[in-house]
UniProtKB/TrEMBL annotation:
It comes from Dyella agri. This is GFA family protein. Pfam families: GFA. The keyword Zinc applies. InterPro entries: CENP-V/GFA, Mss4-like_sf. Belongs to the Gfa family.
């Protein structure tokens, strides 16, 4: 079984996931743009169990459909590393950049295309959604 470790910039906060990703996607919503400081977030889902080391600061945000998400970031360097859905401990969403792996597979989905910057180009064949898919 393949294990992957994602970490913050300073290395204090880490998450180890097991197995293949359930899928990866990008989100262009304004909350993700503000949260990442980039024009979109790129996330990969992994089934539980997962192991976290280090200390995380948490921020809970409620999405457009009323689902609450708990984001974990490093209190030292500020890097967002992962988040979970409140009340659902079956999977975790990990920031793809936190793996620091340029060979990480391309995302399959793109949500909130209605807020995508016009100059952003994504892989051919990606499934596109104007808003959230919930």
């Amino acid at each position: 079984m393949t294990n992957r470790t994602a970490s913050c910039c300073c290395g204090q906060l880490r998450i180890e996931v097991q197995g293949d990703s359930l899928g990866a996607g990008v989100c262009h919503c304004f909350a993700c743009q503000r949260r990442t400081g980039s024009v979109f977030a790129t996330l990969a889902a992994y089934s539980a169990p997962f192991a976290v080391t280090g200390t995380a600061t948490e921020y809970v945000r409620t999405g457009d459909h009323g689902t609450a998400f708990r984001f974990r970031f490093c209190p030292i360097c500020g890097s967002t590393v992962f988040h979970t859905e409140e009340g659902n401990d079956t999977y975790v969403m990990v920031a793809v950049g936190a793996f620091a792996d340029p060979d990480f597979p391309a995302p399959q989905d793109s949500v909130y295309e209605c807020r995508k910057h016009a100059w952003v180009r994504l892989p051919d064949g990606i499934t596109r959604y104007a808003k959230d898919t919930d």
